[in-house]
Amino acid sequence: MSITLQHISKSYKKVEALKDISFEVKENELFGLIGPDGAGKTTLFRILTTLLFADEGTANVAGFDVVKDYKAIRQNVGYMPGKFSLYQDLTVEENLKFFATIFGTTIDENYELIKDIYVQIEPFKNRRAGKLSGGMKQKLALSCALIHKPKVLFLDEPTTGVDPVSRKEFWEMLKRLQQKGITILVSTPYMDEAALCDRIALIQDGKILKIDTPEAIVKHYPKTIYNIGANNMYQLILSLNAYEHSYSVYPFGEFVHYTDQRTNFELNDLKKYLEAENLTGVSIQSTKPTIEDTFMELAK
Amino acid sequence: MKRFLGFIEKEFYHIFRDKRSLFILFGMPIAQILLFGFAITNEINNVEIAILDHSKDATTGEIINKISASKYFSINQFIEQEADIEAAFKKGKIKAVLNFENDFSKNLVKEKQATIQVITDATDPNTANTISNYINSILQNYQLDQNKDIKIVYQIVPQTRMIYNPELKSVFMFVPGVMTIILMLVSAMMTSISITREKELGTMEILLVSPLKPFQVIIGKVVPYIFLSMINAVVIILLSIFIFKMPVQGSLFLLGLESVLFIITSLTLGILISTISATQQTAMMISLMGLMLPVILLSGFIFPISSMPAPLQIISHFIPAKWFIIILKGIMLKGVGISLLWKETLILLAMTLFFIGLSIKKYKIRLE
C-alpha cells in the first residue's frame, strides 16, 4: 500500500474537519478525493504531507508513519498545495532549479520525468513565475513537485481556476506520470475529473461517503435519472420540486436531473403535469447517472 | 551544503528583485544618517534675535556688537517699544529679545548695577535654554573684560574642559545611535518580513515538505542579511568619518567585530518575531513598535538613561541597543578596547544565544 489512513480525525477550534477517515491507496494508483470546498480535503493532504498532526488515528505514506518518520516522508513525496506556492519573483527556470537543488538533485538528472510538462513552459523559462497564466503556473508547480522523482505525489486541487483545455492536458499528464510508476493522490471539486481516476473517494463534511472506481460508483446509483428540459428553466425546477412524487431535482447544464419516488410510472403523466404548469418545449429522457448525481444522492 | 547555497542564492534574488526592500536596505540608512547629522542638532547657530535698546549709549552699543559678532546670534531687527515685542515673536523669525533698561551706562556707573531683560521663545524649551545660557556667558565675558583692572578679593574660576567631544558636536552623539537603529531595523525587520513572506505566500508549506532542515532555512534567510548589514555598517561609518568628521579613536577591527555581533543579535530577534507573526504586516508592526521605539527612547540614544525613572532604567538593561551604543561610543569617541568593553560584549552575546535558543524552540516544523 502506498498510502494508508486509519481512523484519522482532526478538529480545529470549533470545526470538526475530518471524522474517522480510513482508506488505502494502492501502489501506482491514481486516486481522486472528490468533494466540495470545505469538505476537509486540504486538511487531509496536510496530515499526509506531515504538515499537520491528526488528533486521532494513524497514517502511512510510502511505508513511513506520518508522525514518527516525517523526515523520510519529506524526502519521498511531492506536494503541490492548492494555492500557487512558487516564488513569483523568480523566473520559471530559477524556480525549477531551486527546488531541484533543495531536494539534492539537478534538472538534468530527472529531466525525463518532467519533460512532457516542462517543454510546454520552456519557451517562457526566463519569465517571472508571477507573470505566467493560470495553466502555465500549474504546469510549473507540477514540474517543481516532480523534479526530485517522488514516490508519491500529492496534488491539492491542481485544476481549480484553470481553463478547460489546460485542465484536460493536466489530466493527460497525470495519466502519463502514473505510467512512470508514481502514486498520485489528487483532490478536485470537479466531478467530471473524477471519472479519470482509478478509484475515487467522495468526501463531504469531513466524512467519506463512498470509495470505489468511478464506474462502480455510478453503477450502484439506485434510481433512474431523467433528463428534463423546458423553455423556462426556473419555472421547471419550481414545478418539479412541487410535484407530489418528486424525489430529487438538480439543475445539470441546460437540463434538470430528476428522479421520482416511484419505481415505475408513466412519463406522460409527468409531461402532462409540467405542461399544465404552463411550461413549453418539455422533453423527458432517461439518462445515465453521473458521479455528480451519485454525490448528490449520497450527500442527501 | 549545496542545498544551503541554493537557498542563499534564492534569497539574494528576492532581495535584489524587490525594489522596496532594496530601498529600505540601502536608501534608508544613508537618508537617516544625513538627516540626523544635518537636520537634528542641539547646537545653535545664527539664531535671529531682536534688540530693544532704551538707553542707546556706549555700553549697550558695545554689548550689542559683542553679541552680533558671535556666530551664534544675528540681529534681525531693532524694536522701539515694549508693545512691539510680542508682535516680533509672533512673526516667528526671532527666538529672543534683549531688552536694555533706560540709562544703562549711567546706572552701571552710579548704582554699580544695570539690567538686561532676556526674553526667549520657549515653544522649544531646549533651544530657549541654550540661547539664554549662551547670552549669559557672553554677558559674563563682557563683565570680566570690564573688571580686569579692578582688584577683587577672591574669586572662583571654574575651568571646564569637555573631553571626548570637545566641540560638543551633537552628531557625535547621533551617529552611534543612528547606526544602532539602522542595523537593528534592517536586520530584524528584513529577516522577519522575508520569513513571514514565505508563510504568507504558501511557499513555507513546500519548504517544510522538503528535506531542508529548519535551521538551514533560517540560517539561509539570515546569511544574506548579515552581508548586507555589514555593508550598511561600513557605509555609515564611512559617512560619519568623512562627512561629519567623526573620529574613530579605537580599533576599527574591534568596531567591525562588535557590529557583526550586534547584527547577529538583531537577526535573531527578527527570527523570533517571524516565529510569532503570521503575516508580513504583523512582522513589520512588531519590528517597528517593538524594536524601533525602545531603541530610540530607552537605549540612551536621545534621553540619558541616568535621568529616567528607576523602572525604566531596569527595562533599559534588557534592550540590546543600549549595550551596543555604549560599545560604539566607547570605541569611536573614547578609544577604549575590549578590556573595558568585555562586559557589554558578553551581555550582547548572552542575549543573542538566548534569542537563538528561543527561536529554535518556537520554530515550527509543521503548520500548527
Automatic annotation (TrEMBL), chain A:
Gene3D superfamilies assigned to the protein according to its UniProt record, in alphabetical order: P-loop containing nucleotide triphosphate hydrolases
Ranges where the ABC transporter domain occurs: 3-230
Pfam families recorded: ABC_tran
Domain of life: Bacteria
SMART domains per the UniProt record, alphabetical: AAA (SM00382)
Keywords: ATP-binding, Nodulation, Nucleotide-binding, Transport
InterPro entries associated with the record: AAA+_ATPase (IPR003593), ABC_transporter-like_ATP-bd (IPR003439), ABC_transporter-like_CS (IPR017871), ABC_transporter_ATP-binding (IPR050763), P-loop_NTPase (IPR027417)
Molecular functions (GO terms): ATP binding; ATP hydrolysis activity
Family: Belongs to the ABC transporter superfamily.
Protein name from the UniProt record: ABC transporter related protein
TrEMBL record, chain B:
PROSITE patterns on file: ABC_TM2
Record's keyword terms, sorted: Cell membrane, Membrane, Transmembrane, Transmembrane helix, Transport
A Pfam family matched in the record: ABC2_membrane_3
Domain ABC transmembrane type-2: 116-366
GO cellular component terms listed in the entry, alphabetical order: plasma membrane
GO terms of molecular function: ABC-type transporter activity
Family: Belongs to the ABC-2 integral membrane protein family.
InterPro entries in alphabetical order: ABC-2_transporter_component, ABC2_TM, ABC2_TM_bact-type
PANTHER family: MEMBRANE COMPONENT OF ABC TRANSPORTER YHHJ-RELATED, MULTIDRUG ABC TRANSPORTER PERMEASE YBHS-RELATED
Species assigned in the record: Gillisia limnaea (strain DSM 15749 / LMG 21470 / R-8282)
Name this polypeptide is given: ABC-2 type transporter
Membrane topology type: Multi-pass membrane protein
